[in-house]
Amino acid sequence: MAEDLEDYTIIKEGEAEILMSVKNQVFYNKTQVNNRDLSIAVLRTFVSKRKEEHEAMLSKRTKSAGKASCKDAYEPAVEEESNGSALDNEKSNGESEVHKEISQDEPCSISEEPMKSSEGNHRGELKPLKVLEALSASGLRSLRYAREVEGIGKVVALDNDKASVEACQKNIKFNGSVAISKVESHLADARVYMLTHPKEFDMVDLDPYGSPSVFLDSAVQSVVDGGMLMCTATDMAVLCGGNGEVCYSKYGSYPLRGKYCHEMALRILLASIESHANRYKRYIVPILSVQMNFYVRVFVRVYTSASAMKNTPLKLSYVYQCVGCDSYHLQPLGRTVSKDSSVRYLPGFGPVVPQECSDCGKKYNMGGPIWSAPIHDQDWVTSILKSVKSMKEQYPAYDRISAVLTTISEELPDVPLFLSLHNLCGTLKCTSPSAVIFRSAVINAGYRISGTHVSPLGLKSDAPMDVIWDIMRCWVKNHPVKAQAPDQPGSVILAKEPVLQANFARAVASLSKAQAKKVARFLPNPERHWGPKLRAGRQITSKHISLLGPEAVNEHLNHENSEEPEPKRPKTDDASDPTSSS
Question: Is the bond preceding residue 255 a cis peptide, omega within 30 degrees?
């Protein structure tokens, strides 16, 4: 590292260190430490799960091969017995008895050696993980993968910006022999590279500045069967309904602007990935889906199966959102009809709602399609959380990611989207019951309810909307409200008598385990201006104070001012100048 380090800042995160230029030539965001820590936790669990799956496959193959070899060894003896003479029969019977005794005591002794060698061959098939970071910038993520996750053999870091690739190569050398032996950096278009390396990488990581939509088609092709795709989307204004037509053009779904918009963003992204995978007879299985800070991040496994791909319409739904109240309903895209051993795939029944909302009489907005199947695998979430807690010193953002994983572990996995208790009360213009009281009423009515990691005020429940509004009607009877105009949604809802008489007695399960233990679940940002940063290459000016903070902006401006300007070239006498003296 012969270059002068005055123009660089050394940034340490986890076990990796990088050199960052103060001129904003290469993108780096400190906020994404949560993203990187969570990715490392998932990748560690993926390594262990992959090993377990491989050992289970070997065990299954060993048993099936053992049965087949024993059967092949026994059949010639039976054939010889049936075709021999009477004298030979006596002899063969004796031999047959011996063979039977041997086969009972040592059923696979004949094939013992071949099985040992074949098992050794199979064990050799599980190679170290090959990882691709499609948009690497400084290479910090790739370096952390290589240095902190055991079982990784190679990390390929791509970028189509020359300055980023040079910075990444510099950082690889700066991190020593382990990084040099495992990480390689290339100047390439990620889309072309992934298309030309189909089914080559065990894990592909997409973390672009903005939308990942243009990378999804090539990404789902470059993952091996059973491999993992990690994908981040930071264009939340688009995914959350700010520009619905733009979202449809990028992801193939129309978003709705409800309190659940951030979870809907997750489900839109999953539906888009599934759509791209289906074009190549592949499908996805979500492991973990997280909304955090200013982005969404999904972790999915990619499999190939033309028959399993047919189930995709069963995992997608349209959403009907009432414009007057918080009522929403899901319309599944497809359904199945089973007859004997055959299954028929048919269009879903619809519509699931009338023209006007049955609760308040207003119209519906329709959005989607979204992924309506589970967005987490709870077994994986439990394993990831357990692994994180056992290695807490190795995660700089341990408090944040453990809080998120704890909340996710308590979510209802089969309930898409959620309600906001404050919005329900806002519609009725009433005082809000505590979350514990409302949860108790839902549980006492015979339904399930949980929180959501997306919002501290969000509540997931399998109770239908008419039950939710009946509970709120009973609450308002005990806590009267001022009269409203008769055409207001709240007035229309309260004009109806409740069919269900709510029981607000505190239920045992009204608090989750984490709440009962007072485990922190929603943490404040560790510092000010904890959010998105300026795109690399753009000049930092005073107008970026709200984004970066005054200290960072002033430091950069002072550094620019301190740089000495290049000396001007001295004027030279020109002989042809008529004004010059001879």
Answer: no
pLDDT at 90 over 50: no
Q: How many CB atoms lie within 10 A of CB 523?
A: 12
Report yes or no: 300 and 286 within 8 Å, Cβ to Cβ.
yes
**Nearest C-alpha neighbor of 326 from the set 291, 364, 372, 352:** 364
Q: Which two tokens stand for residue 4?
A: 């002068």
Buried/exposed code over 538-570 (b: 16+ C-beta within 10 A; e: otherwise): eebeeebeeebeeebbeebeeeeeeeeeeeeee
Among positive and negative, which fits the CA dihedral 404, 407, 411, 413?
A: positive
CB 190, CB 134: distance < 8 Å: yes
Distance (Å, whole) CA 220 – CA 276: 7
Greater confidence, 432 or 571? 432
Residue 545 and residue 552 in contact, taking contact as beta carbons nearer than 8 Å: no
The H or E element containing residue 265 is helix 261-278
Residue 393 per-residue DSSP state: G
What is the rounded CA–CA span in Å between residue 215 and residue 93? Answer: 69
In which element (H, E) is residue 348 found? none
CA 497 to chain centroid, in Å, comes to 43
Cα separation, 445 vs 465, in Å, equals 13
What is the C-alpha to C-alpha distance for residues 158 and 155, in angstroms, rounded to an integer?
10
Given its phi and psi angles, is residue 184 left (phi above 0), alpha (psi -120 to 50 degrees) or beta? beta
- For residue 132, the cross-strand partners are 156, 204
Q: pTM for the whole thing?
A: 0.83
Rounded Cα–Cα distance for residues 2 and 5 (Å):
9
What gap in Å lies between CA 504 and CA 541, rounded to an integer? 56
* Chain centroid, CA 148 distance in Å: 20
Q: Evaluate whether 296 touches 233 at the Cβ level (below 8 Å).
A: yes
Q: DSSP strand E in 446-550: where?
A: 449-450, 458-461
Contact 448, 461 (CB under 8 A): yes
Question: How is residue 563 written in tokens?
Answer: 């740089």
In this structure, what are the phi and psi dihedrals at residue 315, rounded to the nearest 5 degrees? Answer: -100, 0
Which whole-number Å values give the CA distances from 564 to 542, 559, 560, 567, 570, in the listed order? 21, 10, 9, 9, 17
Which range among 27-41, 358-372, 545-559 shows the weakest confidence by mean pLDDT?
A: 545-559
Sheet holding 449-450, edge to edge: 419-420, 458-461, 449-450
